[in-house]
């Protein structure tokens, strides 16, 4: 390969999405065209046809046996263009439940199955790598992309991601775990500099990635847009070489996020092997850097070897003839099941649910315009979304037609007003913003209560790439109209002895404490993918007993979160030099911006439970239609000797079959280093237990599970002293505890010294 060809493989071949002209102009300004030579342009035009709608393609050189790699989004399913000019055939993909739903199942076997199905669509539609899973920590409830991520907890995140990667890759296609790392907000994501302690990095923000790399070896990793401790992640040798490769043993290649970072030379040196989506200017720059002696060509060779190692495994290289006909029907069944398993029952007074009713009055605009998933690159082009109305009809529950018509007319009128989002990404990617809620009058509520067996009310929220949510009414908080609707409808139905169920069709956390005790039941349905309406009805009718539990805390108010004073950061003096930016993404403004992770390791329940802050619903919480007894909690030894096993018999003590998620938390000594009150170190889910049936779950705890990250020595250490294993049904509902001791201070693992903060950081401590 000559230098030019090397540069052309390392730098992607451009932005391929079918863009409206106004946006396309930003990517392909006409005046820049002449620096692309014709042979290259012909190749690019050719590979464009491989998979319309895929996010990126690497160059191919058939004469050198180098094939293109087709990279397509993720993470809720494969994102491609559903139709092609001049063709009758459609290319719809399955919209699986958003990652937050998948995490709430706490069922890694199920996530593996979802991954298997998703990966089959990747293979059969002709992609090589799925740009998924997203696995940033849900640091703050308002991150606009939380729906694409799993949890506030790194263990849940890592285990879910590993299961997903293993499932997708079982098809012989790759994944790209993203966005590595600390991409915990959308506000100024291209320029934000996050200052985070090395301990919080290792224990919270990197831990999930570490688990996924070690347990699943994803083919690729996607570095993030942001900076951490002063350096763009895609230019950080500490992150991409010392930590990812040397400490964890990652064997694949790293690609940038689309337009991430600013200096291709620094990226190459850091170990960011592929630049996406890539521009001709970057190809030129790379060659010039080698010729001018700023970059050793050997660095490029090393990065190419990593790219080729993955390429050799890829379907395109092997000449796989994709069918374009994945079994969408079978996958619809999997998504329906996965969504029911991840829905969380928050309230259920006097066994309101499950119900057996013939008709219902359905309130809330979102009931009529159900949301399958969030917006942006994580949005899938599915053939259909089962709304709540269709779900009810499939479940033989009649809905009040008069009310339905009133809502449908109202929604049409509101949509015609055309209140459009001004976020270019939302516009570009067709995000769905729920219309403002309709006022429900007392007379309407009373009329419905007289003739219908029950009321269902849906509250909807949506968010997505390019923007964060806000702690205001209509977003984190309910509006007065929404609260009024819940109150008015509940009063009217209660007055005639009938019940009310609220369904939350949301992608992230909202405020619940001020209203959730008003109705009789509250089901957190999340955004359940294209079968969402069917999944909700499966739960409401008891066809499936809910077994989902929260993988993120619901605080009482936004001001109770540990991040409310620091999220999403603030503008700083100075300018980001956009002249240097050759990524073709200069239209996405880089505002000088910084954020300080002052809560440090106290993210999510680690904060609430350590500082005794009351919450609306704790991490790990979720109700069932049955109840479980925890018997015989025991450990196999009193002193740790490299391992300890804790086990519990879970008994279904109720009257219907069900599954239980069991969580194991660690309370560790804090003589030398402070510790959160409790940290999740393992979890498991029972099979479907019949009434009276029991199952023993065992958890093997290893030395690393006891360890915290000691910055002074760059090592994972476990203090000698008394520990406690807490076995619970949620982080606040501990069923039993077992003590054990660690006789000696143990250095579990020494790792690279890396990623030191360069700005002063005042971290939260217990003292
Ligand atoms: C997103 C990534 C995505 C990529 C390609 C970026 O803007 O942050 O998650 O994979 O675009 O579409």
UniProtKB/TrEMBL annotation:
Annotated ranges, domain Fibronectin type III-like: 660-731
InterPro entries: Cellulose_deg_GH3, Fn3-like, GH, Glyco_hydro_3_C, Glyco_hydro_3_C_sf, Glyco_hydro_3_N, Glyco_hydro_3_N_sf, Ig-like_fold
GO molecular function: hydrolase activity
UniProt-listed Pfam families: Fn3-like, Glyco_hydro_3, Glyco_hydro_3_C
SUPFAM superfamilies cross-referenced by the UniProt entry: (Trans)glycosidases, Beta-D-glucan exohydrolase, C-terminal domain
Keywords for this protein: Hydrolase
Record has Hydrolase as a keyword: yes
Signal peptide start-end: none
Record keyword Membrane present: no
Family affiliation: Belongs to the glycosyl hydrolase 3 family.
Protein's name according to its UniProt entry: Glycoside hydrolase family 3 C-terminal domain-containing protein
């Amino acid at each position: 390969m000559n230098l030019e060809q090397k540069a052309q493989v390392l730098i992607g071949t451009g932005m391929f999405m079918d863009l409206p002209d106004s946006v396309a102009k930003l990517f392909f300004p006409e005046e820049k065209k002449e620096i692309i030579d014709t042979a290259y342009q012909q190749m690019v035009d050719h590979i464009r046809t491989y998979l319309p709608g895929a996010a990126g393609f690497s160059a191919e050189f058939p004469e050198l046996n180098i094939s293109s790699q087709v990279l397509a989004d993720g993470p809720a399913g494969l994102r491609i263009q559903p139709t092609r000019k001049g063709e009758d055939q459609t290319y719809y993909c399955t919209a699986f439940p958003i990652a937050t739903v998948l995490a709430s199942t706490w069922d890694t076997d199920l996530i593996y199955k979802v991954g298997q199905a998703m990966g089959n669509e990747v293979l059969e539609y002709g992609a090589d790598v799925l740009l998924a899973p997203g696995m940033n920590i849900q640091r703050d409830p308002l991150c606009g992309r939380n729906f694409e991520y799993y949890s506030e907890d790194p263990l849940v995140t890592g285990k879910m991601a590993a299961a997903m990667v293993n499932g997708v890759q079982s098809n012989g296609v790759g994944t790209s775990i993203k966005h590595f790392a600390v991409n915990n907000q959308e506000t100024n994501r291209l320029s934000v500099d996050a200052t985070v302690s090395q301990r919080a990095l290792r224990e919270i923000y990197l831990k999930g990635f570490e688990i996924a790399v070690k347990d699943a070896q994803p083919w690729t990793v996607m570095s993030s847009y942001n900076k951490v401790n002063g350096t763009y992640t895609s230019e950080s040798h500490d992150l991409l070489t010392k930590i990812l490769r040397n400490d964890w043993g990652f064997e694949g290649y790293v690609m940038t996020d689309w337009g991430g970072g600013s200096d291709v030379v620094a990226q190459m040196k850091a170990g960011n092997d592929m630049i996406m989506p890539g521009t001709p200017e970057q190809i030129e720059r790379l060659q010039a850097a080698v010729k001018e002696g700023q970059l050793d060509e050997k660095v490029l060779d090393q990065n190419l070897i990593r790219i080729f190692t993955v390429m050799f495994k890829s379907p395109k290289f092997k000449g796989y003839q994709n069918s374009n006909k994945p079994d969408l029907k079978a996958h619809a069944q999997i998504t329906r099941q996965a969504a029911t398993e991840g829905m969380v029952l928050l309230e259920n007074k006097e066994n309101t649910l499950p119900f057996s009713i013939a008709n219902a009055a359905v309130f809330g605009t979102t009931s009529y315009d159900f949301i399958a998933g969030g917006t942006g690159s994580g949005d899938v082009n599915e053939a259909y979304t089962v709304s709540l109305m269709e779900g009810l009809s499939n479940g033989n529950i009649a809905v009040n037609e008069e009310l339905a018509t009133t809502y449908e007319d109202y929604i049409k009128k509101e949509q015609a007003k055309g209140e459009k989002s001004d976020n270019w990404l939302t516009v570009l990617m067709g995000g769905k913003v729920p219309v403002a809620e309709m006022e429900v009058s007392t007379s309407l509520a009373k009329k419905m209560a007289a003739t219908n067996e029950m009321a269902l009310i849906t509250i909807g929220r949506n968010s997505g790439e390019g923007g964060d949510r806000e702690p205001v009414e209509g977003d984190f908080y309910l509006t007065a109209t929404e609260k009024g609707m819940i109150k008015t409808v509940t009063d009217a139905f209660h007055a005639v002895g009938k019940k009310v169920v609220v369904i939350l069709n949301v992608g992230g956390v909202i405020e619940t404490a001020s209203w959730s005790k008003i109705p009789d039941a509250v089901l957190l349905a999340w955004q359940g993918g294209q079968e969402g309406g069917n999944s909700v009805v499966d739960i409401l009718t008891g066809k499936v007993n809910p077994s989902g539990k929260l993988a993120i805390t619901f605080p009482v108010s936004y001001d109770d979160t540990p991040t409310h004073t620091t999220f999403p950061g603030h503008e700083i003096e100075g300018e980001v030099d956009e002249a240097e930016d050759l990524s073709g993404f200069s239209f996405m403004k880089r505002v000088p911006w910084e954020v300080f992770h002052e809560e440090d390791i106290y993210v999510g329940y680690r904060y609430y439970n350590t500082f005794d802050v009351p919450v609306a619903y704790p991490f790990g919480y979720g109700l069932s239609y049955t109840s479980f007894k925890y018997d015989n909690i025991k450990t196999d030894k009193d002193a740790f000797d490299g391992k300890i096993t804790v086990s519990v018999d879970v008994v279904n003590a109720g009257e219907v079959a069900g599954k239980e998620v069991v969580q194991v938390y660690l309370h560790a000594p804090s003589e030398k280093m402070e510790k959160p009150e409790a940290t999740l170190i393992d979890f498991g889910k029972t099979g479907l237990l019949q009434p009276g049936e029991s199952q023993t779950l065992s958890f093997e705890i290893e030395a690393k599970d006891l360890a915290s990250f000691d910055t002074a020595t760059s090592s994972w250490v476990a203090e000698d002293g008394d520990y406690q294993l807490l076995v619970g049904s949620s982080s606040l509902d501990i069923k039993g505890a077992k003590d054990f001791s660690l006789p000696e201070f143990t250095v579990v693992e020494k790792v690279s010294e890396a990623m030191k903060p360069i700005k002063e950081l005042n971290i939260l401590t217990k003292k």
